[in-house]
Amino acid sequence: MNSTMIRTCAFVAMVASLAGSGTAFAEDSSEEWRFQLTPYVWLPTIDGSLKYNIPPGSGGSPEISVGPTDWLELLNAGLLLSGNATKGRFGLYGDLVYLSLESKNDGRVLSVDDTVTIPGTRIPIPVSADLSLNTRSDLDGLLLSFTGGYQFAESESSAAVVFAGLRYFDVDVRSSWDLTADITVPGTGVVLPAQGQIGSKTSLVDGIIGIRGHKRLSSGKWTAEYYLAAGAGDSDLTWNAMAGLSYKFGWGDLLLAYRHLEYDQSADSLLQDFSFSGPGIGGRFTFN
Q1: Whole-model pTM?
Q2: φ and ψ of 229, to 5 deg
Q3: Could you tell me the domains of the chain?
Q4: Could you tell me which residues come within 8 angstroms of residue 125 by beta carbon, excluding any fewer than 6 positions away?
């Protein structure tokens, strides 16, 4: 287990212990399966940078910033669905997110890796912001999470669950740029042309651990809910946090929340401190 995963486990364990302190433990008498399905809308802003691999036969490849931008400019399409099945203290949880996002002239070329001056060695050359006319990135991402959990604490108004599982992230990104001039290195010529485009695709599988729970507020209709998970694997670190409120109606629950999802890979990989962050709204339906 690497040091990142060790720190993640310690952090989540600390959160779990704090969440459980002062919470009465109670035996759950329900031995029937209980199912919940939550279709929802998430409107995230994307932020971070994309570090592309160097194309064959090219002298360099750009690192391009993306955002932050207004989510109204980003979302082309989306499909979001979460669900769970619980029996007694044990539960299975799943989450599906598909987003097609487009950024428009809100990023820029940060640097370009020169591999001509010293073959086989990537030397980053900073690119001035003054050279950027237009930089655009498109992203299609599929996120699947599957976890199993155990309800370790419960009272009349609250409950907390620890869980562990896997998260899969498949992302396909394409970027184009328009600069005022070619990026050149003396004696080697053009490293990055003034206009160009590039794309890359990666699939990441990470182990995750976390805690989720809820606490009913005094009115009885309102409930505060939270979710925190972190992990590593193909990523150096990925973490996901959600906090929100739900209101109970006759047909089910209306959920209002804010969600942050972040990925960070190694220094030479595609996603560099890449995050999705924004509000969401959903309807939760319960079946027995």
Answers
A1: 0.80
A2: -145, 145
A3: 3-287 (2.40.128.90)
A4: 60, 111, 112, 113, 114, 183, 185, 191
User: For residue 24, what are its two tokens?
Assistant: 């009465």
Residue 52 Ramachandran class (φ > 0 left, ψ -120 to 50 alpha, else beta): beta
**pLDDT recorded at residue 188:** 67
Cis peptide before 56 (omega within 30 of 0): no
pLDDT tens digits, 171-227: 999 888 888 888 887 766 777 888 888 889 999 999 999 999 999 997 779 999 999
Of residues 190 and 85, which shows the higher confidence score? 85
Sequence letter at residue 258: Y
Closest CA relative to residue 246, chosen from 227, 230, 260:
227
Return the half-sphere exposure (C-beta side, CA atoms, 13 A cut-off) of residue 64: 32
Contact 65, 272 (CB under 8 A): no
- Max intra-chain CA distance, the chain: 77
DSSP 228-265: EEEEEESSSEEEEEEEEEEEE-SS-EEEEEEEEEEEE-
